[in-house]
Specification:
Number of helices: 8
Distance between the termini: 28 Å
Helix content: 25-40%
Strand order of the largest sheet: 1-4-2-3
Strand content: 15-25%
Length: about 230
């Protein structure tokens, strides 16, 4: 991750939104049963993990299997939200998913708990995918988390993409114009930076899923109530 990404990761990790603690040993069915689970994570978990495996696959196991293409949607969603992590038998928020990715530690067995923060005013979370057949695992997918300031401009973004490069998952750097509105026309302009960050054969799909993820963020930001979250 480059310097810009490190700065953004620090910003996200330094302003965590309080959320529930899930032990790494908790089955994913427990996560899915949480009523306030963000819609993007609920969709990703429902699609990525077969219903029969939700009660047997544990949260920590799913993260350690981050290279598994079947779990792509779940992993990019956790990264975009920058879910907090803790180590040892007790304690609070000590690192985050982005921090683990930056240090190639997503398969770290010492992670003992996860904190899923909420989505506040001025923040948006979105995701999208492409699959080769209905119900099939995502062939290409993206998830995005954005901050929009009081003037409507983008303050920071976290965009993660899987299935479009030789790496299991990458953080995408987009070409935002500082101070300009976070809106559909500027999202389209920012997508120009995807060229060169992904394999040419997957560029069209990568652009499409990143665009759709960001547009979902925009829709959440523009929603009249928090119900869309």
């Amino acid at each position: 991750m480059n310097k810009t990404s490190d700065t953004r990761a620090t910003k996200r990790a330094s302003t965590p939104t309080p959320g529930p603690l899930f032990e790494a040993s908790a089955p994913l069915s427990t996560v899915l049963a949480w009523p306030a689970l963000p819609a993007v994570l609920r969709r990703a978990l429902t699609r990525a993990v077969p219903t029969g495996s939700l009660s047997t696959l544990r949260f920590g196991e799913s993260v350690r299997a981050w290279r598994d293409p079947a779990l792509r949607e779940w992993i990019v969603a956790l990264l975009a939200l920058d879910v907090g992590v803790g180590f040892g038998p007790s304690g609070g928020y000590q690192d985050s998913m982005i921090g683990l990715l930056a240090h190639d530690e997503l398969d770290e067995t010492a992670v003992s708990r996860f904190f899923i923060g909420g989505i506040e005013a001025g923040q948006g979370l979105g995701a999208s995918f492409r699959a080769e057949a209905p119900g099939a695992p995502a062939s290409v997918c993206a998830a995005a988390f954005v901050y929009r300031d009081a003037k409507g401009a983008l303050e920071a973004d976290f965009v993660f993409l899987a299935g479009a490069t030789s790496e299991p998952v990458v953080q995408v750097e987009l070409a935002w114009v500082e101070g300009r509105p976070f809106d559909a026309p500027h999202i389209e302009l920012a997508l120009g930076a995807i060229e060169g960050q992904v394999d040419a054969a997957h560029e069209a799909a990568a652009r499409a899923v990143v665009r759709e993820a960001l547009l979902e963020c925009l829709a959440m930001l523009d929603a009249p109530t928090a119900a869309a979250r």
